[in-house]
TrEMBL record:
Organism encoding this protein: Clohesyomyces aquaticus
Keywords: Phosphoprotein
Transmembrane segments: none
Entry-linked CDD domains: PH_Slm1
The PH domain, residue ranges: 303-412
Protein's recorded name: PH domain-containing protein
SMART domains in UniProt: PH
Region listing for Disordered, in residue ranges: 1-31, 415-496
Amino acid sequence: MTAPTSATSALPSRTFTNGSEDDAPVPGEDTSEVTKLFQERLQAWKHAVAYLEDYITVTEKTHHAHGKEYEKVLKTVSNPLKEAHHFDQSLGGVAGMFENIRSNTQGISNSHYDTAKALKGQTLPVFERLHAEIKNKTKELTKGAGKGSKAVDKARAVTQKHIETLGQHTAAFESHGGKMTAADDPYVIQRGVIYRLNKQILEENNNRQDLISVQNSFAQFEAHIIQTIQHGMGQFMQIVNTQAEQTKAMYGDMVGTSQRIPLDFEWNGFIQRNNTVLIDPSAPARSVSNIHFPNQNHRSTQPLIAGSLERKGKIMRSYDTNYYVVTPSKFLHEYKTDDDFAKDPVPELSLYLPDCIIGGCNGQKFNVKGKDVSKGKVGNTFSMSHEVQFKAHTPQAANQWWEIIRQAAGQVTNEIPESSVPTSPVTGNSSPNQQQSLSPIAIEKEAAHPAPIQTQGLEKQNTMSPTTAGTAPGSAVPTSAAPAPASGVAGEPGKY
């Protein structure tokens, strides 16, 4: 900064056209005019510095308020994360990111508090001291140059009074012919005027020197004011800039921490923490064959015999193949297939064998008569007895089925099913071709009233041989029979 120039070299000078003002014993100028001008200037500087004080004070309060507001921001992430166990608690993950946000937000709040303290403790006192210096300068001007101006005004008033007195007595001398007292002698009065005029001039010169000193010092004082303001504003800039840089760095750290999280960090941690719960992709899929449950394969669940049989229809008189099972509970169940997965395996037909009658076995055929009990208790009450005609794939398979059903059946007859050769119309049996030629009404009537099985005068035969039962119609059933084989298919007991 350049040094201020001398105030005297740049001061304006008064010029008078006739020189009468400088020659006048009591000039008409206001001696306090210069002092008042400097007082106004000091007042202007004092107000300028007061503006800066107010600016720093309000900025300090604003930063303090910002600190409180950031404490509110901190409360939004101060609580632990909900379901925090789903996040990895080590550094480098989401939990670490929120910890970083909490730390930096607290740091931003503290930086605002620190900035407020620095502004109040470092910058504001600079302007307060400058304000006090300007006030002291004003007092100094009032007590120094101000007093001198008052002394000049007082001396000028005394001189003016004596000059007026001299004028009165010189006029009296002309009117009275020079007769007057010694004290009123114009000579004496004039010498008194010269004495007081000299004192006045001394006061004026002293006051003039004081004002010149004030003018010269004002340039340096104003330079001091400017330097102090520049120093204070420099401190202010450094403090707020430090706070701004800290805030920028803290926000940058928040963002950087979140961006450094590996994309699979949380997922890998989640997999490790819950490896006992989550599904292992490399593990084989579940299979029904690998599952075991209570009472699985209990003896009551194992069929006595199971496999496919052909059943003769009631209307079309043609044979349909279905899957049949004889259970230890003495039921003969009919299913469409042996598939347990396609649909719920509910029996299409269920015969409770102890309530059924079984006829003799003729080659591949045998008949069972009974009620379908698959419809429940109410349905069983209103159901009618039906004679079901079965046909096995081989005579040996038919013998096995017949023997197992016979052991569970309530009654056994020696009635032999019709052979595959068509019989005479006199017997009441008709071939499938003849059956198809019947009218629908006749077919329905025959389905509703099937030919009865001969059961008169017969008793339950539990020892009938399946091989002798089909020798000839009407022949007696032998009393002994060989036990039926357990299976007709190797490796699958009781299945055909």
